Amino acid sequence: MRSGADHTVLPANVFQNVFQNAKLEPPDKILCGPDRNPLKTLGKFKTNIEYKGKSCTEEIYVISNLQTRLLGKPALFSLGLGPNLNSIFQISVADPKAKFPELFKGLGVKKGYYSIKLKPGAIPFAITCPRRVPIPF
To answer: How, if at all, do strands 41-51 and 54-63 pair?
Structure first.
């Protein structure tokens, strides 16, 4: 249950089944989905969340018609589930040629220059049209 959500949210049916004794307070914010449309927030409640010996008190919003539970960024970092920025940095700086030298030898390696000859009258082209990216990505 990881996400990049700003707040921890639960579907209404999970709240009803798991947190039967909790009372909902009126929401103090209007929460929006990744498409920036407002979500139908039924209320919020506070509870303690524990994971592998770490715990935090989190305000959880209950959303109608939500499919998946989302753990918000503050809770992710409090519970030690956030990304390790040092490991991400080390991966991005690594030289792939030095790390995987076997991939840069043998088949596919051409010494010198190579030219592509086209048929007379051929017009080279490239497809460079923009592609839509889904909003959650």
So the answer is: antiparallel
